[in-house]
Known about the structure:
mainly beta, five-stranded mixed barrel, 6% helix, globular
Amino acid sequence: MGLFAETFDELLDSIDTPLVSRFENGVIYEMNLVTRVIQISGYDYHVSPAFGEDVTEISLLGTSAGALELLSVGMKVEVEYLDLERARVAIVIKALDQNLEVEF
C-alpha cells in the first residue's frame, strides 16, 4: 500500500471544486485498519472513520449494514469514490456476489 500522510477528513477538506464520483468493481487485496486504507485491484482508497460527518457507507451482500472491519481480503466489491489525483476517497463500498466476474 502506498503511504499517505493525509487522513480521509483532510483529503475531503482539500476539495475546492465539485467532483463527480466514479465507480469501480474489484477485489480487496490489502486492508490497513489503523490507517483505514484499503487496496482494491491495485488502487488505494481512503475510508472514513466509523463515526463523523462524512462517513463511507459500507454494506455487506444482502444487507445495508456493514463496517470496514467486516470486509476481508479476497472479497469482491463495488467502490464509489472521488478521484483527487493524489488519492482516491471511498464514498460507498458494497460487497458483491463472490461468483461475479471482476477484474483483478
